[in-house]
């Protein structure tokens, strides 16, 4: 029997489940009633998503939204409400844009500038050239041919023939598939590829600028007039080399067909965007419900408050924000918990989990930065850098619960291959079985703010959520609006989030901790990269 | 045994299938090769759909497109190429438009003016008011409250939770479900409802104008940022009473939520559209491949050339147009057929099958117009008016094949509950079994230009087509672009269309004819309408 399982058994056998259950029953019942019958989730959602809108890291709208959140926490009576700043880069604010075909016929196109694109300073007009380039070796073919052009940088395929459902809820079987133990492994080649791709995108921009191209024109990765403004995958906060516009697939392909069957079409583009070069700092928002026992540490709920900018940042991650804030509201209606309950609205998640990383560096543990690596490699390899050095605050964090998989209701939680915590998480979710939220699966889930906490051995978890239409069409697209959330899902998630926090804050037992991992340092990806790439 | 079945048996037993098959084999083989290996379908498609674009009935772009089609037919060597005009109404040309939220925050919205909306003469700005009105009795509640407002005329529901596939091809079972005999019946209440709805929409526009509203704002009937510019369902060619803008569901719902939870948002709209009040005539384009035997009559293929304006009119009905024109091109490569093969590119289909109706009135048969009915009822009841009076040309039309169900390949043909024709249609489709196009089903299919020909007892048929994503998202939306067609489907359909025309044009046997039907006259819907409606 491992140490963890022994620990798990210890409290299961030794604690007094009957009494414990009795103590918590009324509180849980209150939480369920408050969260379902007196919910304020949808009002909060409309204030933030309809009234304020998208919250790109370090944008002016993100500042407005944080002021709103801070005022909201204050009104609830939370304490220790403050911003915690970290270095990010330039803020980028999109004001307006346009994309039209001028010849062979006038046509409005569906488009969105790429984030951190420079402005065009008015309408620019030029002929398109279809110049697919996916590696540096392709530049030679186009050298001297791009001056003054609108450069379409890829060849489009055909529209999707998707026969999958747009909207989906998990079956029990879907969830069971997630209940599989898997050791975390590091693939240095994954780093390479991502870094090569990021590096290439920068080089492509620089090449287009050097060649005197007017703009880079890219195709949306989803069809159906969905646009995203994505495509850069290097660190945000840096201005792109040339104006970059993403076109809807339908509009992009039309240009390519026309260019290949006759005279190249002429298009007009405009991007009005401003940069904040003064304030290069982003910030997390932190707020507490102070606990009775200063020595008992704290439990924490978090969601990234920053969003992408194509929609209103509703499913990603307005939903998590609203659930965290509604859980806070519900819990303020209860007597003081034993442990402090901390709420974090992260920033910079979309640019690489920067907010939760900054919280770790400030409060929990440090990792060395290998200055022998290129800046981008330094940035990307941090999460695997060795050794990890505890800070005094490390032992105070007793549990962290994250929400960032769209607006879908909770179906359970990912134990992150950590069998030691399964019994206690199972016990805490049991009261929500009738809300269909009681599954604990061994599997990991990545890509959001619990990851770096997990990596340093803290009990940090992300809930299992019904997918709805999050990945099929909403994620980072112009469809990320409140319409695509579901009131009953947000209320259910708020109840479960509040219930888990409350039990974690008051439990005699603590979640067992993996402790500092002995993970290998990732070798410099550039040293092992294929030289012919 | 019915007369029709006797007739069917007659030629099946009496004709010489072996010889007939032998005669046609080489021609069919040539048609398949020419249509698959030397196809020009996609080039034609790009010229029309990418280069020219949408073709709203009697718009300037429709005129351009018809000039292109006439030149194309001439280049193929067809004869008797001409326009046949019919009275329609004003042409409407959309030049540009915009829709933005001004307060509580600046936001571009996805929108499309309703067809035949008057222009706004610049940008108009006003507060929204949510005033759901679905019957005349609702007007009283809003009288005196709409002056200067942007009037949202409905309450939105929730976004769809569609778990159906976006893209679909028929299984054999799907097609078998269509093989069911059903007598045509007339439901006068259907007329009523449609007429009431059309009448109401006109009255609503007049009410908004009388109340001094700035504009009517409607919600798209599909979510996912799809817009259509639809919503009028009365006869086209008439200018709406007030500027009318359709908003994407996501943008419409945001306005409603904001209006209902706080201060009503302010929006700005602009519609730049022009009317052609001089030329009120629309026209069909007709072209022939002249047959050897002037007494043998003609067979015909048709597709409506007019389109809706939200996209490029690709699936509806660029696809049918391209297939009819490619079939013509293929058949010009063969020696003269026995019967003339006529090609019709209809206009006014979107406004009520007006082009094919005009062809009937000019060449085939007349129906009385009941002038005691309201104009709209006269217009809508024509297809069921009694008696039908043959014209000399009635007997000359031996077969009509229509294509207008999107870009999907042919899977067979609808016999329209006419068992008499099934054996011959089955025989003619047999060579295309390996192209999966050989199913003959008894079922009817409506809503396009074969319907009025069927109603007067002529052998007029529409093919069974794979749905693809036509009805799920493309039909009349801003997604109706060439992207959503499939090259191999258009080539297959062109081959089958050409093959059916060729066999019908050269067959010793003729399709049996239902003859003039003894159908009841539809009673004046207004006399039986519920007075409380």
UniProtKB/TrEMBL annotation, chains A, B:
Q: Name one Pfam family in it.
A: Peptidase_M28
UniProt entry keywords in alphabetical sequence:
Carboxypeptidase, Endoplasmic reticulum, Glycoprotein, Golgi apparatus, Hydrolase, Lysosome, Metal-binding, Metalloprotease, Protease, Secreted, Signal, Zinc, Zymogen
What is its subcellular localisation? Endoplasmic reticulum; Golgi apparatus; Lysosome; Secreted
Query: Which residues are in the Peptidase M28 domain?
Result: 284-498
Signal keyword on record:
yes
Domain of life here? Bacteria
UniProt entry tagged with the keyword Metal-binding: yes
Subunit structure, interactors included: Homodimer. The monomeric form is inactive while the homodimer is active.
Q: What is this protein called?
A: Carboxypeptidase Q
Per the UniProt entry, what species is this protein from, by scientific name?
Croceicoccus pelagius
């Amino acid at each position: 029997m491992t140490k963890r399982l022994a620990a798990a058994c210890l409290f299961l056998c030794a604690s007094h489940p009957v009494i414990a259950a009795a103590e918590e029953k009324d509180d849980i019942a209150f939480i369920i009633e408050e969260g379902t019958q007196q919910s304020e989730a949808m009002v909060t959602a409309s204030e933030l998503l309809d009234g304020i809108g998208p919250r790109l890291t370090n944008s002016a709208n993100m500042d407005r939204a944080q002021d709103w959140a801070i005022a909201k926490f204050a009104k609830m009576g939370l304490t220790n409400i403050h911003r915690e700043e970290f270095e990010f880069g330039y803020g980028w604010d999109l004001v307006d844009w346009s994309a039209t075909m001028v010849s062979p016929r006038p046509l409005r196109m569906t488009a969105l500038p790429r984030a951190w694109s420079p402005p065009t300073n008015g309408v620019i007009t030029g002929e398109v050239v279809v110049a697919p380039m996916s590696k540096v070796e392709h530049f030679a073919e186009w050298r001297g041919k791009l001056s003054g052009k609108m450069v379409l940088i890829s060849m489009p395929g055909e529209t999707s023939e998707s026969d999958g459902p747009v909207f989906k809820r998990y079956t029990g079987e879907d969830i069971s598939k997630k209940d599989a133990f898997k050791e975390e492994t590091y693939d240095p080649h994954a780093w390479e590829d991502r870094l090569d791709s990021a590096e290439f995108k920068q080089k492509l921009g620089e090449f287009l600028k050097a060649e005197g191209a007017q703009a880079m024109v890219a195709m949306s990765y989803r069809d159906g007039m969905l646009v995203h403004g994505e495509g850069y995958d290097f660190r945000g906060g840096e201005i792109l080399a040339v104006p970059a516009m993403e076109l809807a697939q339908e509009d992009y392909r039309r240009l390519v067909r026309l260019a290949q069957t006759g005279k190249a079409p002429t298009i007009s583009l405009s991007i009005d965007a401003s940069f904040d070069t003064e304030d290069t700092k982003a910030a997390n928002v932190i707020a507490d419900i102070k606990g009775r026992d200063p020595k008992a540490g704290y439990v924490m709920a978090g969601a990234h408050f920053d969003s992408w900018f194509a929609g209103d940042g509703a499913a990603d991650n307005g939903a998590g924000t609203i659930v965290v804030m509604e859980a806070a509201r519900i819990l303020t209606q209860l007597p003081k918990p034993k442990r402090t309950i901390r709420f974090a609205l992260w920033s910079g998640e979309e640019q690489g989990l920067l907010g939760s990383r900054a919280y770790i560096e400030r409060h929990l543990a440090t990792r060395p930065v290998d200055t022998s690596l290129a800046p981008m490699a330094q940035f990307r390899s941090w999460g695997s850098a060795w050794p990890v050095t505890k800070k005094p605050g490390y032992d105070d964090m007793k549990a962290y619960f994250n929400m960032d998989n769209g607006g879908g209701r909770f179906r359970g939680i990912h134990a992150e291959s950590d069998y030691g915590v399964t019994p206690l998480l199972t016990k805490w979710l049991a009261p929500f079985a009738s809300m269909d939220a009681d599954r604990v699966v061994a599997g990991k889930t990545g890509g959001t703010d619990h990851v770096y906490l997990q990596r340093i051995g803290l009990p940090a978890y992300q809930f299992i959520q019904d997918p709805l239409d999050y990945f099929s069409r909403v994620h980072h697209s112009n469809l990320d609006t409140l319409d695509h959330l579901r009131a009953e899902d947000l209320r259910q998630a708020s109840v479960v989030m509040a219930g888990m926090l409350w039990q974690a804050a008051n439990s005699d037992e603590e979640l067992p901790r993996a402790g500092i991992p002995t993970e290998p340092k990732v070798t410099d990806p550039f040293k092992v990269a294929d030289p012919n790439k």
